[in-house]
């Protein structure tokens, strides 16, 4: 891509604006969330941003619109303003999509951490365990005026998120506080923040156990192909999930998906069977499924804590053996 003496790109700037926008989106879209300092700086595709001032001003909004920026709570702490401790969230005024991967307190404020979600004097507002200060930064519009979506991944911080949820639920007993800020279960391991505290119009803030949510959703899409005996390409699919999301969770959730198809399921796992059927009923009647989904989620979390991967795999084999025996008896009778 050549330029003339005035820095004009001889090819790109002569194309219609709509076509240039398509080119920017194609060239500058990355398949994974970006931690800017580590990935984008070394990508040859981003050299288009350095072509000239016109292309820079046109392509930069496309770059931020098409990508999600990866960060942690550490990047918002009031005491970690050094580049050694923070990801340089360049052009915060342009960022549209954020993925907060580490929901725990910052490196600095962790030194003020006590037990049972109690923090000693000195912890900054952003790192307080209620997450009130953290959410204020994200939703006020001051730091990120063009922000459209925030996903806070709590997969490795289930306890911290549980405390945030409990505090919000206690506050929600007062209608004014509930209208200001509440969490609504919108999927397996997914809770959407709603209320008047979200100042930015159109901003969606979601707390999500990304690993659980995505594994569960992938299994649900294959639900018709899953039986007590498994599903097509079982080994390859589970291995890919272990590599992409979590070492143990794919097998644990797969046990639930397959086990549910067993004749013994309702007797051995009565609670989750009842909650799962209740969710199915709510969906069939096209009612609000938030409460039913959260009840099922809580039971799924309980079971994944109770049974490790090393336990669910033998349990599934046992169910399959018993299923075979029962089917043989039914065939002979």
| Average of pLDDT | 87
Number of domains: 3
Radius of gyration: 24 Å
First-to-last CA distance = 78 Å
Low-confidence stretches: none
Shape: globular
Q: Which structural class do the helices and strands define?
A: alpha/beta
- Strand order, sheet with most strands: 1-2-3-6-5-4
Keywords: Coiled coil
Protein name: F-box domain-containing protein
InterPro entries: AN11006-like (IPR038883)
Organism: Cercospora berteroae
What would you say this structure looks like, in words?
Keywords: Coiled coil. Residues 279-306 form a coiled coil. This is F-box domain-containing protein. InterPro entries: AN11006-like. This protein has 333 residues and is α/β, with parallel strands linked by helices. The protein has three domains: 1-66, no CATH class; 68-208, no CATH class; 212-332, no CATH class. The chain has twelve helices and six strands. It has helices at residues 17-28, 53-66, 132-139, 158-171, 175-180, 210-221, 234-244, 249-259, 265-268, 270-284, 290-306, 309-332; strands spanning 68-72, 97-102, 149-153, 182-187, 190-194, 204-208. Strands 1-2-3-6-5-4 form a six-stranded mixed beta sheet. Strand 4 (182-187) and strand 5 form a beta hairpin. Helix 7 (234-244) crosses helix 8 (249-259). The radius of gyration is 24 Å and the shape is globular. The mean pLDDT is 87.
């Amino acid at each position: 891509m050549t330029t003339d003496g005035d820095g004009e790109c001889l090819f790109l700037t002569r194309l219609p604006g709509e076509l240039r926008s398509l080119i920017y989106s194609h060239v500058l879209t990355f398949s994974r969330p970006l931690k800017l300092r580590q990935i984008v700086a070394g990508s040859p595709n981003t050299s288009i941003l350095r072509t000239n001032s016109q292309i820079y001003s046109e392509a930069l909004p496309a770059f931020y619109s098409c990508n999600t920026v990866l960060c942690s709570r550490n990047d918002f702490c009031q005491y970690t303003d050094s580049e050694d401790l923070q990801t340089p969230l360049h052009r915060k005024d342009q960022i549209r999509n954020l993925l907060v991967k580490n929901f725990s307190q910052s490196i600095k404020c962790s030194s003020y951490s006590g037990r049972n979600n109690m923090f000693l004097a000195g912890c900054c507002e952003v790192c307080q365990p209620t997450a009130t200060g953290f959410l204020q930064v994200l939703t006020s519009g001051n730091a990120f005026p063009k922000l459209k979506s925030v996903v806070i991944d709590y997969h490795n911080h289930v306890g911290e998120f549980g405390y945030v949820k409990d505090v919000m639920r206690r506050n929600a007993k007062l209608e004014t506080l509930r209208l200001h800020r509440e969490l609504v279960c919108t999927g397996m391991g997914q809770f959407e923040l709603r209320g008047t505290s979200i100042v930015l119009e159109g901003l969606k803030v979601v707390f999500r156990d990304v690993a659980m949510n995505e594994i569960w959703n992938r299994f649900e899409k294959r639900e018709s192909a899953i039986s007590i005996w498994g599903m097509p390409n079982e080994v390859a699919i589970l291995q890919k999930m272990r590599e992409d999301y979590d070492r143990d969770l794919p097998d644990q959730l797969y046990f639930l998906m397959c086990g549910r198809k067993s004749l013994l399921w309702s007797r051995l796992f009565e609670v989750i069977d009842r909650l799962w059927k209740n969710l199915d009923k709510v969906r069939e009647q096209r009612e609000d499924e938030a409460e039913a989904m959260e009840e099922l989620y809580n039971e799924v979390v309980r079971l994944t804590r109770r049974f490790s991967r090393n336990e669910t795999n033998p349990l599934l084999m046992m169910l399959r053996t018993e299923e075979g025996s029962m089917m043989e008896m039914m065939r002979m009778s």
